[in-house]
Amino acid sequence: MNSAGSKSRLAPLALTVGEPSGIASEITLRAWLLRESHALPCFFLLDEARWVAESAKALGLDVPIREIERPEQAHNCFNDALPILSHGVVRDEASPGHPSPANAPAIIRSIERAVTLAQDGHAAAVVTNPINKKSLMDFGFAHPGHTEYLGELAGPGHRPVMMLVSPALRVIPVTVHVPLSQVPDLLTREAIETACRTAAQALKRDFGIAEPRIAVSGLNPHAGEQGNIGREEIEIINPAIAAMKAEGLSVFGPVPGDTLFHAAARETYDVALCMYHDQALIPLKTLDFDRGVNVTLGLPFIRTSPDHGTALGIAGKGMASPISLIESLKLAGQMAYRRSWVDAA
C-alpha cells in the first residue's frame, strides 16, 4: 500500500461493478494481482462474490475472494484477498460481450452505494468501472453517462466537470456527450466560466498546483481568424476568458486547436479547456492511451474512472489491460490523501 492509504489510514476506495459483460471483472482482478508492484491503495469491489469468483476461474486468474460486511474490513484482508462488499441487488450471470438490461439495476445500485459510502466517509473515493450506456438506457436510465448521473446523486448546487488526466496532459471538454452539430448552440459563456472556476479549484485542492494555468481552445479552425471562420471566439469564448482574468485566474486563449497540444505548447499550461469531446480526448488518447484517467470535478466526493469503455469485443478473452484502472485507483488515492491534508489545514 502506498502513502495514499498507509500514512493516514484513509478509508478504502469503493470500486463499482461496471458492465458485467465487459472487461470490468478482468481489469479489477488483474489490478488486485498487481497491487504490490503498483503500490495501490486499499479498495473493495461492489459486486457479488460468486460472480467475481466465477470470472476469476474462467480467466485462469488466481485471486482469492473475501466477502466483507463493512468497508473498513477491506483493510484487514486486502493484502491477501480481493474484498467484495455486496450492494444489495442480485444480478444475473453475465455473458461476455452481450450486455443485458436485466443487470442494469445492479449496475446502477453499485454506483449509488459507492457514492453514499463516499459521502458518509466510509469510502475515501469512488472509482467506477466502465458501463454500457445502451443497455442501461434500454432499462430506462435517463442519463448520458456516469458524469451526469453522479451530478444528480451529489445533489443540488453541484455542476460536474469532466477532466481527463494522463502523465502528459490534462484536458477538460466544455461540452461532452452531445452530437457535434449541437456544440455551437450548447457552448455558452457560463459553461466555459464554470469549467474554468471548477478546474482552478480542483487543481489547487487535489493536485497541489498553487496557481493553475488554464489554456482555452478555440472552437473553429484557426480560432476563427478574427471572425472570418466563425464568431464563437469573439462572442462567447473571448468574453469568458476576460471574465476569468478579471477574477484573478491565469487563463489565456483562445488557442487554435491544432497548435495547442505539441510538446512546447503543453509546457505553458496545467490544463487545456476544450470546446467539445473529441477536441480534448483525441490528443490525450494519442499521447498516452493506456494511462488516461477520467476525473469528475465539482462533486463533494472524489471520483475517477478508466478512460476507456467496456471493450465488449475482448470481454472474457483474457486480453484486457488493467493499466487505466490501476492509474484510476492510484490517482483517487493520491487525491484523497492530498485532500485530507488540505481540508485539515
**Biggest sheet overview:** 12 strands, mixed
Overall 3D form:
globular
Number of strands: 12
**Unreliable segments of 5+ consecutive residues:** 1-7
Structural class by SSE content: alpha/beta
Name the CATH superfamily classification of the largest domain: Isopropylmalate Dehydrogenase
Task: Kindly estimate the percentage of residues that lie in beta strands according to DSSP.
Answer: 15-25%
**CATH class category of the largest domain:** Alpha Beta
Span of the ends, CA to CA: 24 Å
Helical stretch count? 13
What value does the Rg take, in angstroms? Answer: 20 Å
The SSE string, one letter per element, is HEHEHEHEHEHHEEHHEHEHEHEEH
Give, in spatial order, the strands making up the sheet with the most strands: 3-4-2-1-5-12-11-6-7-10-8-9
| Overall pLDDT | 93
- Name the helicity range: 25-40%
Task: Tell me the domain tally.
Answer: 2
- Topology-level CATH name of the largest domain: Isopropylmalate Dehydrogenase
CATH architecture of the largest domain: 3-Layer(aba) Sandwich
What labels would you give this structure?
345 residues; cobalt ion binding; single chain; 40% helix; alpha/beta; 13 helices; cytoplasm; Isopropylmalate Dehydrogenase; 12 strands; 2 domains; PdxA; 12-stranded mixed sheet
